[in-house]
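Review session, final week

We close the course with one last complete record, chosen because it touches almost every idea we covered. It is Winged helix-turn-helix domain-containing protein, a protein from Tahibacter soli with 600 residues. Go through it on your own first, then we will talk.
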Amino acid sequence: MSPVDSTRPAASRVLGYRFAGVVLDLNRHALTVDDAEVPATPQMLQLLQLLCEADGRLLKRQEVFDRLWPGGQEVSDASLSQLVWRLRGALGPYAESVATVRRSGLRLDAPVTTEFDFQRTPRRPNVVEPPAVQPPLRDVDLMQAQPPPLPPAPPPKRRSWRLRYGLPGAVIVVVLAIVVMLLPRNTVVSAGYALYADDLQASRADTPALIATAISADNAGERVRAEALLRSVHDADATTPVPALILSWWSSFSSPIEAERWTQAARQRLGADATPYLRLFADYFTARALDRPTSGPLNALLDLRPQAWFLQYSRAHSQLANRELAGALRSLQQIPLDIPDARQLAEVLGDRVALGDAAAADEALRAKAIAADPVLSAYLQGRIAYSRGDLPAAIAAFDRSAGVAEEHRVYEYRLRASNFAVLAALDAGAADAAARIDAAVRLAREQDRADIAAELRGFEAFLAARAGQPERAETALADARQGNSSEWFRVPLTLLALENGLAPPYDPAALAPGVPAIPVYGGVAEIVLGWHAFARGDKAEAGRQLDLARERGIARTYHAEDAALLAARLGRKAVPCRLDPPYPNSLRLTACIALRGEKP
């Protein structure tokens, strides 16, 4: 931090801080990055102020909790991790200045200059100053002000993908909103959902533009901005249910309770004049948020608007959940290669390769949107290598993707590529698999993805059990249970424990009756009971439950691998398995790995 000027007036006041290309203006409650003002919540600004005041000193986690959540409020580590992630997202190219020290705290790794009031000279601002920072739900109000001047364009060769993911995000969001506002009344709000302005049941003229901007921000990997916009629209427009519907799905990954609240809020807004498409849209998102079957409303939506390519992708994954592999591939092949979302295109092509579509690999490498993006290009190379069984090449490609994503602050793909690298390393029996799991867990927690962190902890329990470390395995299982208590996760976590001689995190006898009686879970309750019997040493009962599971369709579920391993343990014939794509229920990879060690 710059030396204090001994000649300054005694009553001088700190007006702000500067480091690298960042300016924190305490007087205006504003954050500027590379001369462009970016949206930031009061708590984000307060955290950054604490870091600047600390002058490179490590702030203990408890110290941060006491300052940001005073009065003894009960706050989880995930809340602080999410706040740090949001602040890093706002800082853009300077995100790594906010350093986290594992199990200790935070510090700012950058020289800080303090700006006092006596150093300020009157000057005319070059942008329209917004009012004092409002709570997060009002971030959208900043968009009503005149946008700041656009910064110099980055080099042409990087423009196509840096702008898609990068900064200054505030400028991109404002420009998107202005462009959409100039379009006709019943314009497309989301091509992926085939959602139009007239579907929204909106009472404000700017609602379609703002929802379109939020969806575009999410497509660009800016989920935090997208959430802030949708929360703002929900508060400002008292009639549209669409923001609450989307937020219900997004929140279901970390908080089922919050997901249910958003679902109820949306349902209360569905009016008598809601279009048939909007009603089905609400049914679909409600089902997704509450982990219910989606095939009914999803197929009906596509009957009305088959051009909704994101819904085609969702149907493909619904078909995957039912092991309808041919149908899933047909749905994926209906998605055009010129969709505007390059990230979604990468997932579509990766899934097509996984399902045996050899042409998709060539299409993936030729797609301009993919070739121009080094993060997605390396990620897809990893997917292709994984599908071909070349695990070392897959790991190397995923590592490249994660590395470039980290360099350019593409946090979503830093986590996604790292997670795929973990799966490939586990499948290959790599010596560094445990270290990769630890690193990926940290990334998942930074991004408030408790579901991913919990699954990774399950893999840690598997490795610890195989290494003869039962205490470490039990700790990892407990962490996994605490991180994801959703109904769908209880079965795979319990089966993983039973298959590896660990105490199950849930009582199998109580868990089995609650398994939904739907095709996607056909025979799953019986497999849980079968493994429970096997763990007790009752092989006869285990065999009986296995036979029942097969009769009830276990082979068409994402627990078929658990059934195959039980058969092998009972001395029956079992076919080796390999996961591709390795979702849903990635934990079944452990059953495939264990099955390789069983005697035929």
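Two points worth writing down before the exam:
The first helix runs from residue 42 to 54.
Confidence is low (pLDDT under 50) at residues 1-11, 118-169.
Good luck, everyone.
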